[in-house]
Task: structure prediction
Amino acid sequence: MDSGDRQSETDIRLTELGRLANPLFRGSRRVDTQTSVCSLRPVHRDRFDYDTFWTLLDRVRASHRLLRFADVKDALPETPFALLRHDIDYSPAAALEMAVQETARGVRASYFLLPNGPYYNVLDPRHAHVPARLVELGHEVGLHYDVNFLYGFAASRWQDLVRLQATLLESLSGQPVVSIAMHQPGLHGEDPLRHRTDYLNAYDDRFFRDMCYISDSARAWRDDAWNLLVKGPLPPRVQLALHPVNWGRADRSRLAIFTGIHAALADDLQALGAVLIDQIDRHAGVVEHEASLERDRRVEQQKS
Ligand SMILES: [Zn+2]
Result:
């Protein structure tokens, strides 16, 4: 055996020891087998493609049951578990692409839709089917809400205004809304509804402060989150907040993702503008009005 072989053998033993010492890798035979395969797959911190997504998710589900918020409505289950949450801030299409993959792999998640964001409209004929489709795929549809909308009203009205938005999603999805999650907590501070609604709130203490919270917000990993995901040990209760827009078949830079969102929005607006001008030009009333003006002009010309 040459020194290279000895080194490899040592590495393998150390890897095995690491696995046994790490609670992420303890447990049933199934867990051990699955983790052995997963641990061989390389994972890169600055790569946000579906291969990486599934490598990370497979690591988590090797030891933790992946659950929706709706699954813990009555009580928190036995540990270990991870609540899988997806906020749809920008792209219902990206969410559906992720949802289809998850269903194919036996994963169900909570998707939080924002009814009044600037990037998509849940009542737009292009997106109105998304809530029902998510439910059909086995996922939960929850409300992602913007506190700036609430702040325009007295606090006594907030509960009703949350209900209004949840009812909209319920009508579209065909399922009761069980869970809610505040949009952009990093920008707007503490969630004013954390203890104030009848819904499960993703930022309630039991899901946020008393639970390990891991997020890929803005296509970036905090050091602690990344280390827990990749090296473990993963705590027994986890909330995993992953944004579908960050992930794709190929990795894209942060700038490419977010400038792409705006380019698509600008293209949509430009196309809408062209359609509007064309429709106005061909509007029956406009045609009649302009023809009448033209006739008047000719009469005036003949007089002069
Ligand atoms: Zn959001």
The beta strands are 65-67, 81-88, 110-113, 140-145, 179-182, 200-201, 212-215, 237-241. DSSP finds eleven helices and eight strands in the chain.
